[in-house]
Sequence to fold (213 residues):
Amino acid sequence: MTDDGLPVVDAPAGRPDTSGVLGVVLAAGTSSRFGDANKLLATVGGEPLVRRAATTLLDAGLEVVVVVGHEATAVRDALAGLDVSFASNPAYQTGQSASVRAGVDAATERGVEAVVFLPGDMPFVSPGTVEVLVAAYRADAGAALAVAHEGSRGNPVLFDRDCFDALRGVEGDVGGRSVLLGHDDAALVAVDDPGIRTDIDTREALESRRRDG
Fold:
């Protein structure tokens, strides 16, 4: 049990069946803490952050939808050549919850069983971590699942379709944290991946990661 009050489970080994699970990259925000530039277009290792995040979900075997809003055309251009679809969030200035709703709507349209959310400013998550999360879901570890490294919760997060209505009800500049923590069938999935706790919110964080390689 962690400080969140959620149990920590280990996922079964092996690559899971990812059919029926949609990956959603949250990429509509204004990058307010980053300054004038859009952080999602900043590069690490020669690739925009948002492209690395989308590739993580693709390499895990998921169908991927990218929610766009702020500088939508530039974000789309940064993902050129990737097999992704897009969902528009015209209300992106109201906060992340609007992007979560757009992702849930995309999942509902496709009739999927579950959705995996990954913020577009998290470029260091391993595709294997996404696979572990889906494997835990397939093993009935919970209907609302997040990954954890050394006992600390991070991203991505998976929600079964039974959570979709609750996610639509979230408001403000927050994601699905309240739904995860308030769900009766929620758990954290242990992974050996510090990238789940590494987002790029500021220029200082970006430069630090570039120096570290």
